[in-house]
Amino acid sequence: MVEGSGARITDADGNRYIDYVASWGPMLFGHSNDRIKQAVIEQAARSMGFGAPTELEIRMAERIGELMPALEKVRMVSSGTEATMSAIRLARGFTSRDLIVKFSGCYHGHSDSLLSKAGSGLLTFGIPNCPGIPEALARMTLTLPFNDSDAVTRTFAEHQGKIACVIVEPVAGNMGCIPPAPGFLETLRTVTARDGALLIFDEVITGFRVASGGAQALYGVTPDLTTLGKIIGAGLPVGAFGGRADVMAMIAPDGPVYQAGTLSGNPLAMVAGLAALDQVSPTVYSNLELATRKLADGLADAARRAGFSVACNQVCGMLSLFFGTESVQDFEGVMKSDADIYRKFFHKMLNAGVYLAPSAYEVAFLSTAHTADVIDQTVRSAEQVLSEIKANR
Ligand SMILES: *Cc1c(COP(=O)(O)O)cnc(C)c1O
Which pLDDT belongs to residue 168? Predict the structure, then answer.
């Protein structure tokens, strides 16, 4: 790809596409958003970075805290991977416990502890367990089925007082889009609190995508720690973690849990992220929700009219289409969907000028630049493409 503007991008051969990858999520306001672009240009003229704190980091932390009050203290890092890795270390340091719980199909970046049965690329390429991770470390990660509250309760009963934290994508977004089952996040909250373990919401995707307060606001469940990335950098490399002040006080130099980063809080990333978060408002999310629903309904209708059974899951700004199934609520459901039809759908949509994620297990991301016209055009392409796929079967 070589350039983008709003909802559209252009590749090196000059082909134009409607973009639903959105740099894997960060482009909430579309490509080359004026305010974000201008902020980056002005900051680049001042300096790219000092290795010393700037007021920008403080403003970023304050803005995050306004939008997500559970983040009483925030530490900036340079990627989502760093955010989750550091949050896990902090949870282990704070609780003096080693075990962690994650869910199959959730992806939390590529640090050693978090790659077991992970989503995203590992799911696409069929890598359930990544070589290179010491077995002693892998044993410290307990992987449970997403949306299975009983499994969580059972696991805590079995390992009472041994689990440092549960980390979860509050809306799974790396095995396709799977909203939390009613009561699932609440169970995680209750069970962790009872056992003295920490609850970490990995909101690297959902943070400022599904609501102005993230998934924790949308579902009304408050975690101890939250990890952020993607949208808060608006396309530049960034991550953050934060949460309860007493827990965050354990991080060096206030406390003994070490964490540092040469480019953390980098001014370019901060101005880009601030220019994005300054544009966040309730209207942004009500419009995004409408656009997402319109696209989801349009795609699901088109698929059904072409004779495909399909499940279309959506939460504000993110959606996925699972072929060959009526309902997908967990990792098993994802694995039962027909990735082969998706593959054909992806390639034909690409030829028709619509760039979806090149994997049946990644979601489509919308931006504020995905207007009704853009969505209508996408649905028309999908109708055409799906009838062709049907005819060739
Ligand atoms: C993308 C992602 C990460 C990792 O972020 P990087 O910036 O790619 O390291 C972590 N958690 C979730 C939920 C993600 O979607």
Answer: 98
Ligand 1 pocket check for 108: Cβ under 6 Å: yes
Mean pLDDT of 101-111: 96
Is the pLDDT at 127 greater than 90? The verdict is: no
In terms of Cα–Cα distance, which of 331, 315, 313 is closest to 323? Answer: 313
> Which residues are marked as active site?
107, 202, 230
User: Are the C-beta atoms of residues 318 and 363 closer than 8 Å to each other?
Assistant: yes
Q: Are residues 232 and 317 in the same domain?
A: no
Of 277, 297, 329, the domain-final residue: 277
**Domain extent at residue 123:** 34-277
Report whether residue 229 contacts ligand 1, using a CB cutoff of 6 Å.
Answer: yes
Specify the number of domains making up the chain.
Answer: 2
User: How wide is the angle at C-alpha 370 spanned by C-alphas 368 and 373, nearest 5°?
Assistant: 135
At which of 277, 298, 328 does a domain end? 277
Please indicate, yes or no, whether residues 38 and 28 belong to a single structural domain of this protein.
no
Q: How far apart are CA 23 and CA 15, in angstroms?
A: 18
* Contact predicate 335/341, CB 8 Å: no
Residue nearest to atom 11 of ligand 1 (CA): 108
Task: Identify whether residues 163 and 301 lie together within a single domain.
Answer: no
CA distance 133 to 116: 10
pLDDT in tens, 293-320: 999 999 999 999 999 999 999 999 999 9
Phi and psi angles of residue 92, each rounded to the nearest 5 degrees, phi first: -65, -40
Whether residues 214 and 322 share a domain: the answer is no
